[in-house]
Specification:
heterotrimer, A alpha+beta (296), B alpha+beta (792), C alpha+beta (160), A: 296 residues, 14 strands
């Protein structure tokens, strides 16, 4: 949701200076040269409106768009490496993403609208870590690792450790999310994604993605990630535990739905009461699990 | 008057009227060559931005503009005091609303702010960005006052009053009563009742409000480029409030990016911009950005209605009894007021039906929110939803089918003329015909059978019906008698040009509905020329005669009749002149395909040749021949005070009872707007209107917190209807021309919005009926639907 | 530090060199510096689609790109698409079907429609509506727009 700090009628950004470095090192240097009064920009689909409304007003904007090392999608061993600058739209068309991270591809049509997807970057979305966004939650579901360029060079952080609080991640000031490393799915994986939104492309009331590994009919491993149910994307660990070692039948689904109660703690909002979000999360989980079960 | 000269020959073949023609002026818009006020750049033009208050109610303690004045690019920083020296105050009341009151308004406040988002200080700079930079430097100290943000609080004794010098928060109160209500309810077999809540919503035209004021001190002359529906209304207002002779004020409305009622009210910023241009002696532009639009454009609806109906055992509707409370802003909108909507609600409830008794009570109540006023289908959606919900409730109580109970109770097609329960005079409506056409259009019985079948499989589909009556073609009874200088007449000047083409300058205006196209169609038929050689000009007080312009569905009915009569007059002059040239009797001549023809249909002389002779060879004309090839005509509706239209909607939905999400499967409309000039445009008016009604039904609501803060004032958070959620819409027509005009056209622009939300509400309730859930609040959000279902 | 920066890009086939303030959006740059006012701004936050233009062949919100970010880019606006004739059939279909009223959303609608047509295939009405999900129109109710796009898709598919 857009922050509501209206009352002053701003729609043109405050003046800033603009840098467009070609390396991550130069980008960090530009960032720190501004004494912390800087922002990185990649696709800008969330940042530009915030600047226009003057909700943010950095002195320097460091554009990551010209850094070639942040581009490209490749398979590296058992991992799919998605450069941070990869556009949302590429998740719909890139054959490597479709083959190795189909859950990400399945969530992509739900991210905003076509023109936003043409410009927005996956790395930008995961950096912002909006708790109502699809991609951050899918990183959790896919057990992705975030490759970060920081003070000590590159490091990797697992999705479980990356999302910390509302808009707070493992990124330190000046850090650059350089790539997303996603374990390639195998033949025994199944996945499902859906969300409940009032209009196509809106932030979902509740959304979820599931990535399950089967052994025969039995779930050997599963990760369930929900969004719009709290200050961060949330893993439904209780629901996961309720499924592991079982085939997905009505009983297992009911068990997972019951366990979900303790997994999430949605915010109470006059328009979307917490109790309603809980109800919707339960309904959505049930539908997704039935979909997985039907495929079995 | 102006009867056809010789109806026996080829006159008045409707070669154009009644045909679906696309709009000549749309090609320009398709090429990206529209010229909107937002696009306009004038030499030395400056840009205004406003500092807005974050408080819904506060006293202004101090304003410090010193630093802002010194900011780069700044030409002027103006406060309420500065503009109060130039502009006289305005008060949004109408004399015929007895007892109505409202506080006087100035462009910018000098003492108190009364809604969150109200403009307080204006900054004028070389660019909008620089104006915004300086606006950040303005320091305003406020003393917060108690905020009135809900109806109950406003009506409580001792409630704070948002407007100075008013004793209480009641802007206007009215009542209606006919028949022996108490007796009718006492003897009724069934009494059905419900409490309704209608969410506050807003117009959201895609082009925000935009104005460029250009004051020329050397001539004491003001030109205003204004995205508005009503240039003459604003010419009058700017002239009077800034004390500039009317003839020196010109208002130009070029292409306007949608309005729907939003752009015909006085806005404080717009009034301020006139003063800013006077102070700067330079053109000043202001475009409300989208966030500003949400906190400063008029809002509408926001009603709470308690209603009941008395019903006989056989399903006959006996009486309705309603109380409507509507929350407006802290003052009444100028010059059309904030009371018209409520007034129309209580007069339109029950309007399609024969009732033996009707009682209504209206309270229009101030609070600390942005002003409300007329937005598309003023009051109709509320009246319609209340009425049609009660009718469905009566159907359930008596075991009748929703179409059957309506067929039993609508005013019969042969019962006209007659009066409505609320006192409106109806010339002729066609409820029965519309109802039967809707039944066929929907394939109603098949839909019911499918519904029953799907219900057994856990799929919850609903069918909703809503009958409506719409107010169009208002006479001076609407505003004129209330003292507002809002014209109910329109004027046209029509000219045969030297090359034998036709130019029409007419006071009705265009915001994309096709005004210029239909005026051209009317002229083409009544002058005997092709539409292609007619140029219609609108939207400039220096170009057209004075007129009311386009609102309340008057463009086709009143504007069209004005054009028809003007074309007749010109044709008469042309034939008289042709008669002189040809030595023939004018009444034996006619105009066909731009040729003067004789009784036998033989071409005698071309229109172009007549024009050539008149303009360039008047020396060859016989003595006494009159070459009057420019004529003016004004037309004001007489007879019925309004031309009422009617119709009926059907809505087909599927409710996901686990998520509260509703899929609108299809929507159906049968409407009767009298003579249809252009069916393509009528149907598109209806479709666009339906979607605005469906937006209200499911999505749109201005949400305020207890402090009077709008919490969803952006296009990301205020949900407008988008393509994916909207259905295809099937439309059929009945044509009952009004006999008050020769053209016979009534309005159609609000028919879609009037009943769509009512039909949608009935459809959702029809779907939920087996689950014993019922909603009487719009928008019907997933939260409200799930709540009604007891799901959380 | 926020001094104007040099910008070179290609707009509607013409190479453009300008100095621009970094805070200027591409939409404002097109509208004010280049007088290409066919690109409209309805919300300036990427929610309405009125400002869509093609950037390197893909529709983007010109209000969500700073002009300086378009360095080296190829931009096409409704004016360019009109002059090249690339959407003449689409514009004719919009006109015939009256798929516009006030015209303010129309340039954005045409840019999205052009992308639908360029993508190829024969999407059904639901898919067309889905592709239009980011384009707000307050006037038409969308059906006529869907009709016009569907018609153009069919006409192009039928073309030899």
């Amino acid at each position: 949701m857009m922050p509501h700090d209206i009352g002053e009628g701003h729609i043109k950004a405050r003046a800033f200076s603009y840098e467009r470095p070609h390396t991550v090192e130069a980008a960090r240097a530009a960032y720190f040269a501004a004494d912390g009064d800087a922002s990185y920009i990649s696709g800008g689909q969330s940042l530009v409106p915030a600047l226009a409304m003057r909700l943010q007003a950095p002195a320097v904007l460091v554009d990551l768009g010209a850094i070639e090392t942040l581009r490209g999608v490749s398979v590296q061993g058992a991992m799919l490496r998605i450069g941070a600058l990869t556009r949302h739209a590429q998740a719909l068309t890139d054959p490597l993403i479709q083959a190795h991270a189909p859950l990400l591809a399945a969530s992509a049509p739900f991210v905003a609208h076509p023109a936003i997807r043409n410009r927005g970057t996956i790395g930008g979305s995961v950096s912002l870590a909006d708790p109502a966004s699809e991609f951050p939650a899918m990183m959790l579901a896919m057990d992705a690792r975030m490759e970060i360029f920081g003070a000590d060079g590159y490091r990797c952080v697992s999705a479980d450790d990356y999302f910390q609080d509302l808009y707070q991640t493992a990124l330190e000031p000046g850090d650059i999310l350089s790539a997303l490393l996603i374990p390639c799915i195998g033949p025994r994986h199944r996945w499902a994604f859906d969300e409940l939104a009032r209009r196509r492309g809106d932030y979902a009331m509740v959304g979820a993605g599931i990535l399950a590994q089967y052994q025969g009919d039995v779930v050997a491993g599963v990760r369930i990630a929900l969004f719009s149910v709290g200050p961060t994307p949330v893993r439904a660990r209780g629901a996961e535990a309720a499924l592991i070692g079982h085939s997905i039948d009505c009983e297992a689904i009911a068990r997972a739905q019951r366990a979900l109660e303790a997994d999430i703690d949605p915010l109470d909002d006059p328009q979307l009461p917490a109790a309603m979000r809980r109800h919707l999360a339960r309904v959505l989980l049930g539908r997704l699990l039935r979909r997985l079960g039907d495929e079995a | 008057m102006n009867a056809p000269v010789n109806p026996s020959v080829t006159f008045d073949r409707p070669a154009h009227v009644g045909r679906g023609m696309s709009r000549p002026n749309a090609r320009r818009l398709l090429a990206g060559k529209g010229q909107y006020v937002t696009d306009l750049v004038l030499p030395r033009m400056l840009h205004a931005a406003f500092v807005r208050t974050p408080h819904a109610h506060a006293r202004i303690v101090s304003i410090d503009i010193a630093e802002a004045r010194r900011a780069p690019g700044v030409r002027l920083v103006a406060t309420g005091e500065d503009l109060a020296l130039l502009c006289t105050p305005w008060t949004g009341t109408l004399d015929h609303f007895k007892g109505m009151k409202s506080a006087p308004q100035l462009p910018l406040p000098v003492e108190r702010v009364v809604w969150s988002g109200q403009a307080v200080v204006a900054v004028v700079a070389d660019s909008r960005a620089e104006a915004e930079d300086a606006a950040e430097l303005v320091l305003i100290e406020y003393d917060e006052l108690p905020v009135l943000a809900d109806l109950d609080g406003a009506l409580a004794p001792g409630a704070p009053t948002p407007a100075a010098d008013l004793a209480d928060n009641l802007c206007f109160q009215a009542g209606l009563e006919s028949g022996d209500i108490d007796h009718l309810f006492a003897q009724a077999a069934h009494v059905v009742e419900a409490d309704f809540t209608f969410g506050r919503h807003t117009g959201v035209p895609l082009e925000p409000r935009a104005i460029v004021a250009d004051y020329d001190a050397s001539e004491h002359r003001l030109t205003v480029h204004h995205a508005t529906q009503t240039p003459f209304q604003f010419q009058d207002l700017y002239a009077r409030h800034y004390n500039i002779p009317e003839a020196r004020v010109r208002v130009i409305a070029p292409d306007v990016g949608g309005s729907f009622g939003v752009k015909l009210h006085v806005y404080h910023e717009d009034m301020a911009v006139i003063g800013l241009s006077i102070l700067c002696r330079r053109p000043v532009k202001f475009v409300a950005d989208r966030l500003e639009a949400f906190v400063s454009d008029i809002h509408a609806r926001d009603h709470r209605v308690r209603a009941r109906a008395a019903v006989a055992a056989d399903g006959t509707l006996l009486a309705m009894d309603v109380e409507d409370e509507t929350a407006i802003g802290a003052f009444s909108t100028y010059p059309r007021t904030s009371a018209v909507e409520g007034n129309q609600v209580i007069r339109l409830i029950g309007a399609p039906y024969r009732l033996s008794g009707y009682r209504a009570d209206l309270k229009v109540v101030f609070q600390n929110k942005v002003q409300t006023s007329q937005y598309r289908a003023v009051g109709h959606p509320i009246a319609c939803a209340v009425t049609e919900h009660l009718v469905d409730a009566a159907a359930r109580a008596t075991g009748l089918d929703p179409l059957a109970i309506r067929a039993r109770n609508v005013i019969a097609d042969d019962a006209y003329p007659c009066a409505s329960p609320g006192g409106y005079q109806f010339e002729k409506l066609s409820h029965e015909q519309c109802l039967e056409k809707l039944r066929a259009l929907m394939d109603y019985e098949a839909l019911r059978a499918e519904q029953a079948d799907l219900r057994s499989r856990g799929v919850h589909r609903g069918i909703g019906i809503a009958t409506f009556v719409e107010i169009t073609n208002p006479s001076p009874a609407f505003y004129g008698i209330g003292g507002a200088r809002i014209s109910a007449q329109d004027g046209a000047v029509i000219t045969l040009t030297p090359s034998g083409e036709v130019r029409c300058q007419i006071s009705v205006t265009e915001q994309g509905q096709g005004t210029e196209t239909i005026i051209g169609q009317v002229i083409a038929d009544h002058l005997g020329v092709s539409r292609d050689i007619i140029r219609v000009m609108t939207g400039d007080t220096a170009v057209t005669p004075h007129g009311g312009a386009t609102w309340a569905c008057r463009g086709a009915g009143i504007g069209g009749e004005t054009a028809l009569q003007a074309a007749r007059k010109l044709k008469s002059n042309v034939l008289r002149l042709a008669g002189s040239i040809l030595q023939a009797k004018p009444d034996e001549l006619d105009l066909v395909d731009a040729m003067v023809v004789d009784r036998a249909g033989a071409a005698r002389v071309s229109l172009a040749e007549v024009a050539r002779i008149a303009y360039f060879r008047s020396d060859t004309l016989p003595d006494g021949a009159q070459a009057q090839l420019t004529v003016a005509h004004h037309f004001a509706p007489k007879g019925y005070p309004f031309a009422f239209t009617n119709g009926i909607h059907g809505c087909h939905v599927e409710v996901d009872v686990e998520t509260g999400l509703v899929k609108i499967l299809k929507h159906f409309v049968v409407e009767d707007c009298g003579r249809i000039i252009n069916p393509l445009l009528v149907e598109e008016q209806v479709r666009g209107g339906v979607v605005q009604g469906l937006g209200a039904a499911f999505f749109e609501e201005c949400l305020y917190d207890a402090n009077g803060q709008l919490t969803n004032g952006s296009l990301a958070d205020y949900l407008v209807p988008m393509a994916c959620e909207m259905p295809d819409i099937l439309i059929d027509h009945v044509e009952t021309p009004t006999l008050d005009t020769e053209l016979g056209a009534k309005g159609c622009g609000e028919a879609g919005t009037a009943a769509a939300s009512a039909a949608a509400m009935n459809a959702v309730n029809d779907a939920l009926a087996p689950l014993r859930a019922c909603l009487t609040q719009i928008p019907m959000t997933p939260a409200r639907i799930l709540k009604a279902l007891g799901r959380f | 530090m926020s001094a104007p920066l040099p910008l070179t890009l290609c707009v509607n086939g013409t190479r453009i060199n300008r100095l621009v303030e970094p805070r200027l959006t591409l939409a404002d740059f097109l509208r004010t510096d280049l007088q290409l006012t066919g690109t409209h701004t309805g919300c300036e936050m990427g929610a309405c689609g009125a400002c869509l233009a093609l950037m390197d062949g893909m529709p983007v919100h010109a209000c969500l790109v700073f002009a300086v970010q378009a360095e080296g880019a190829v931009i096409e606006t409704v004016e360019g698409l009109t002059e090249s004739g690339a959407i003449a059939d689409l514009q004719a279909a919009f006109h015939e079907r009256n798929a516009l009223q006030c015209g303010f959303c129309t340039p954005g609608m045409l840019v999205t429609s052009h992308a639908i047509l360029e993508k190829g295939g024969l999407p059904d009405r639901d898919q067309i509506r889905d592709a239009l999900s980011g384009n707000y129109c307050r006037c038409t109710g969308y059906e006529a727009i869907v009709d016009a796009i569907e018609r153009t898709l069919q006409d192009r598919a039928a073309r030899p």
